[in-house]
Design brief:
Layout (H helix, E strand, L loop, with lengths): L1 H22 L9 E4 L8 E6 L2 E7 L2 H4 L33 E5 L10 E2 L8 E2 L6 E2 L20 E5 L2 E4 L6
Antiparallel strand pairs: 1-9, 2-3, 3-4, 5-6, 6-7, 8-9
Bound molecules: FE2/S2 (inorganic) cluster.
Length: about 170
Amino acid sequence: MRWVQGFSITGLGFLAYPFFKVLMPGLSEDGFLDVEFGDLRPGESKSVAWLGRTVIVFKRGRRWLAPGPEVTELKDPESLESRQPTFAQNAARSYRDDVFIFYSNCTHLGCEVAIAPERWEAPIQCPCHQSGFDASGRVLRNAAATLNLEVPNYRPVSANAVRLERSRPT
Ligand code: FES
């Protein structure tokens, strides 16, 4: 009887796979997702589904490449308490200055943040309790959230694309 159950589960997996491919067309069988962003102009963003969460790619324009808010206005300016891969442990929290890639969940209670490009100092906003984050996802001092937005693991695969990958244990 066990082999019947195993067969059923395997069969369900085969049936479900095409649906996942439709929902996440770039998702490979190895569990990575390639994301192109060459079509984004400064101030624009795109969202992708990644392992049950949403990842936002934000194209930072020149206005955000200048130094952001004073460090005294930020709760964790060096991102020492916040989660990001080693390569993003810098002020831009990214592998390149003009693109910021982050999980959309607010670090307060998990609401989905949104891009508000009209706000220079805090172009990432949470609609639930109005936490503001700078263009590198660093939380402002007066916010309800305590940590900077989380950065997923990824690496560049071309001039305008990255590959989201599962984090490797350190
Ligand atoms: S959930 Fe974002 S500020 Fe509360």
